[in-house]
Amino acid sequence: MKVLALFIMSVTLAGAVATLVISTPVAFSAQKEPRFPQLKVEDLNEQQRPVADEILKVSSIGISGPYNPLLRSPVMADRMLKLLDYLRFNTTVPRKLNEFAILIQGRLWTSQIEWVAHYPLAIKAGLSESVANDLKEGRRPANMQPDEAVVYDLCLEAATKHAVSDATFKRAREIFSEQQVVDLLMVSGTYASVAMLANAAEEPAPGGKTPLQPLPADH
After folding, report:
1. Which domains does the chain have, with CATH numbers?
2. Distance separating the N- and C-terminal Cα atoms of the chain
C-alpha cells in the first residue's frame, strides 16, 4: 500500500508540474500596478540624467526594460553600463559565441527581455536558427559546432551546478584563451544578474512579447 501511495503521489505531482509548465507562461499582467513605474527622461534627476543619456546611445528599448529599475541606483547603473559596454562590444569572445552565452542565461531565467533583444543579434552574428530554437525549447541544441558546444556546457554548468567540471574546463582551454574563458563566465554571470533584476521588477519585453515558455521544474 505504501508503494502504491507513493506511486499515486508521484503521478499527481508530475501532472501538476506538467500543467504548470504548459499553462503558465512567464508574463507580467498589464492590469497589475508596476513594481517600478516607468521612468521618463524629463523626470530624471541630475544623477540619473547623464547615465540615461549614455544608455540611450546604445539601447534599442530606451530606458525601459532592466534600465528602468537600474536607474533607481544611478551610480550602480553607470558602473553596470560600463561593464555591459565591455561585455557586449569589447569582449575577447567572438560575437556569435558571446550572444549565444547571453541567450543561454536568457533561457535559464526565462527572461523575455533578454531573449527578445538578443535572439536576432545572435542569428545576425552567425548562430544557426536550429541551435537557438532548440535552446528556446529547453533542449540541448543539436548540431552545435565544437566551440558552441563548449560555450553551452561551460555556461550551463557554471549557472546550474555552480561549478565547472575538469573535463569541461579542459575542453574550454583547448579552444579559448584564459581571458576568453573569464570573459565567457563574466558575461554569463552579468546577464544572469540583469535577468534576475528584470524578472523581480516584472519588466515586460518590448511589445509585451513572451516567446519563452517556462522550463520544466528540473531545470
Report:
1. 43-90 (no CATH), 94-208 (1.20.1290.10)
2. 32
